[in-house]
Amino acid sequence: MASRRRMLLKVIILGDSGVGKTSLMNQYVNKKFSNQYKATIGADFLTKEVQIDDRLFTLQIWDTAGQERFQSLGVAFYRGADCCVLVYDVNVMKSFDNLNNWREEFLVQASPSDPENFPFIVLGNKIDIDGGNSRVVSEKKVKAWCASKGNIPYFETSAKEGFNVEAAFQCIAKNALKNEPEEDIYLPDTIDVAGRATQQQSSGCEC
Amino acid sequence: MLPDTEDEEKWLAEGIAGVQHNAFYMHRALDSNDLKDVLRYSVQMLSELRTSLLSPHKYYELYMRAFDELRKVEMFFREEISRGNISVMELYELVQHAGNILPRLYLLCTVGSVYIKSKEAPAKDVLKDLVEMCLGIQHSVHGLFLRSYLCQISRDKLPDIGSEYEGDAETVNDAIEFVLQNFTEMNKLWVRMQHQTAALVSHAGIIVILKLLGDLVLRLEFELSGLQGLTREKDKREKERSQLRDLIGKNLHILSQIEGVDLDVYKETVLPRVLEQVVNCKDDVAQHYLMDCIIQVFPDEYHLQTLETLLSAFPQLQPSVDIKTVLSQLMDRLSNYATSSTEVLPEFLQVEAFGKLSNAIGKVIEAQAYMPIVGAITLYVSLLTFTLRVHPDRLDYVDQVLGACVKKFPGKAKLEDSKATKQIVALMSAPLEKYNDIVTALKLPNYPHVMDHLDNGTKKVMAVVIIQSIMKNTTCISTADKVEALFELIKGLMKDVDETQDDEIDEEDFKEEQNSVARLIHMLHNDDPEEMLKIIYTVRKYIVLGGPKRLPFTVPSLMFSALKLVRQLQGQDGEAVGEQVSATPKKIFQILHQTIEDLLSVSSPELALRLYLQCAEAANDCDLEPIAYEFFTQAFVLYEEEVADSKAQVTAIHLITGTLQRMNIFGVENRDTLTHKATGYSAKLLKKPDQCRAVYACSHLFWVDDQDGVKDGERVLLCLKRALRIANAAQQMANATRGSGDPVMLFIEILNKYLYFFEKGNPQITSSILQGLIELIKTETQSDTSSDPSADSFFASTLRYIEFQKQKGGATGEKYEPIKT
To answer: Nearest Cα to B638, choosing from B627, B650, B649?
Structure first.
């Protein structure tokens, strides 16, 4: 049972609207990229098989809406995440400044048992734009922030060119695996469940 | 009727407990590969989703728990099949034996996912089956979540282009068809919610019904009108619907992610089908949200190429839909797109984006007869923003937008709605910000028409915005015509409005406004004297209308602007060139003379006096003696007749003396008259110390330190002696009254004047006179009981100066040598 559960690794991608969350996921899973901006509605995931130390895992990658108005149902899907990926656009300072909010929001909403050691990963995306000339967030600045938050691993990526995407997700998968399973141990009150089960089935209509 | 949050938390906790409990046994069954028990417990687990007690938010939490568990079931199914224990088709049949439809369909979708992945049946058939089976759930919340589950598990199994599920018999069209169908059904469920009042109370809610009955009794007791309850019920439903919206919107997101949805497919199939659903559902919440979604999830390029289709939907929406926000977002996106790269701009021209948007806005406003005026204006602001960003060179477009907006205003009436006026300010500010140049805005014929519809207060605000724009960009307004147009635009600041004068006007605000007008006048300039003169005429025409409160602010600016022109023309004599030339200093002085008289008519004598002196000095520089003399005469007349306050007199006389000292064109006679007057007035000031200081200042009138300056040593001495006498008198008065006056200071000041002229070589001032004065001051300071530290230090430094000059040696040292300090 434990092995089956550990075969699935749940990863949540967060970040401001337009930083390239969907593109990173599409590049990693489908090796595809589109320059067009398309907003994400709600939460959406894709899966991909990964091999870590000769073992196969399924990575469940949740792409989220960066625009708050497309997150109407809340963030119940954060629950049980094994790793949280924080994405910003190296060409937009605000998207970096907001990483803190995203991180805090995640910790509050997902309430992992050990928030200090919960695995985060930071991706600075769109390094390809204008040959890096329009970049406004320096590597030093990001690394300082990552260090201050418990040495979060940092990758610079280009979803467009596929640069560093594979490496970043390898790291994401490894860190997700390191995360201690969160699943609360459930112990039933009584071993006999037949009573309850029949009760359940007898009540109510067909829908 | 509303379950309070405490109850809801309890129900959610019970639901979660139910899921966990069954999941526990399900896990054991998974571990022992017991398919029967896996199905049994998963059905029981999924039965928790049959609750109707939870709000969508809470239901989502429960759903996510079950969702996570189903991933394990799905993995197990795959393993079972690969182990050969059961075929996927058999499994697909088997799960349909579940008793309750909701658990059954969740399991069916889960198997369906495995089925498609196994490729034992075409994806399109499985998907079609599933999407139709889901019709069995007509409970809105249950149905929406079930379908979003279907949406999620099929997400990576659509027969998209390049996907492993694409085949000869199944194409991207099947994928699109599937998502569209699911979308349509979900939207129906969602829209229907608003008509379901009792939907909340379903089978699982017997307890609720009982509770409701109890509530009802209470309510009848306390609340005779149930209306409040109905509204609350409606609000709650709206809130629940709003929470659910992303489940429906997600279908559009998936459509946008399908590789095969290229521009053609989007244009031919996706957009028309989606719009059809949006328009036909006739539900304002759904329409607003879905239009927003369409705009956000599909690429800009698609919008641009299907603009007509997209825009044609807007006039068909319900009147209560907030179209302006949605349309503004579309225009925002498009204008961002236009500025993203120069390559896309031709596309905008090619599809005539401006014309289409403009047309659509017109139609929307027409269709929505009850749209408040602010809504219409907001739309035009967005269109204008779009135009300025996409077609900055098309002033005709900009004007067209303004013109269309003007047409929407009701008659000649002023707008009363404060939100609407705010939008107008935004509308009028946009071109200023874009072009950084009022001159461009002045070229727009409709610009002033928009202004006409503002109330007086807002007109002023707008006028200030215009002036600030000019100042910020140091825009030069260079012709009289433009000046005229500009003043017409800002006339709210230039004169009192005809209506009853508002007493509420804040003094500070008024000053600020008029100061800005004064600053503006300096921005009206042309290097050509003829045109500049015309500008001055125009400015004068407007500012004389300003009334007593404004003239003191505006006249000085006009004066100095005109004097600047005078300086430019200096040396050119009008008479020599002939009468045809109007821009002559003489001519300008005439205008100035009149303008100062205007100022006088509103009783600002002190300001007028200063301006006369400025003009006199300028006339002096132009070698126009009679004119300079005339200005001086006017200044003196003013002094005599209008300046009564003794403090003002002191200031005025010093100004007069100072100016007169610099005048060099007066003949002996004129000069004598004027200096005589100045000294006379000086000696007649009220306070002795004032007299003294004014008189010793007059000494400079007789000794101008220029090459050809007057050098009348005798009269200098006369002045200084007279000052000394007055100082003496002042001292006696002070002694008599033990007043606070400080005559010693006066003596030291006079000593310094003596020193000045001594140094300048006035033969009348000798070292012995200086010596005498020094002795006098020394005696005075010693006898004075209440010594004044500032006088002491002034005297000390004066003496130090003399010592310093002695030590210089040479001629200077020799000259100072006899003086003993």
So the answer is: B649
In three-state secondary structure terms, B306 is coil
Residue A207 counted as domain residue: no
User: Which helix (H) or strand (E) element contains residue B202?
Assistant: none
Residue A174 placed within a domain = yes
The per-residue pLDDT for B260 is 93
CB contact under 8 A, B253 and A197: no
Q: How far is residue B756 from each of residues B251, B542, B702, B743, B806, measured CA to CA in Å?
A: 94, 49, 13, 20, 15
Average pLDDT over residues B757-769: 89
pLDDT in tens, B141-172: 999 999 999 999 999 999 998 888 888 888 89
Q: What is the mean pLDDT of chain A?
A: 87
B558: three-class secondary structure by DSSP: helix
The ipTM estimated for the assembled molecules is 0.90
Q: What is the DSSP letter of B268?
A: I
pLDDT in tens, A139-187: 999 999 999 999 999 999 999 999 999 999 999 999 999 886 655 567 6
Is residue A186 one of the residues assigned to a domain?
yes
CA distance A91 to B159: 36
Question: Is-contact B802 B791, C-beta < 8 A?
Answer: no
Q: Which of A22, A33, A41, A134 to mutate to test the interface with B (most CBs of B within 10 A)?
A: A41
Q: Domain of residue A26: give its range.
A: 2-202
DSSP string, B738-764: T-S--HHHHHHHHHHHHHHHHHTT-TT
User: Does the CB of B71 have a partner CB in chain A at under 8 Å?
Assistant: yes
Which CATH number is A18's domain given? 3.40.50.300
Helix (H, G, I), strand (E, B) or coil at B430: helix
| CA B700/CA B711 separation, integer angstroms | 9
How big is the A-B interface in CB pairs under 8 Å? Answer: 139
What's the distance, CA B541 to chain centroid? 32
Residues 8-67 of A with CB under 8 A from B: 8, 22, 26, 29, 32, 34, 36-42, 44-47, 58, 60, 65, 67
For residue A59, being part of any structural domain is answered with yes
Chain A residues in contact with B75 (beta carbon < 8 A): 4, 7-8, 58
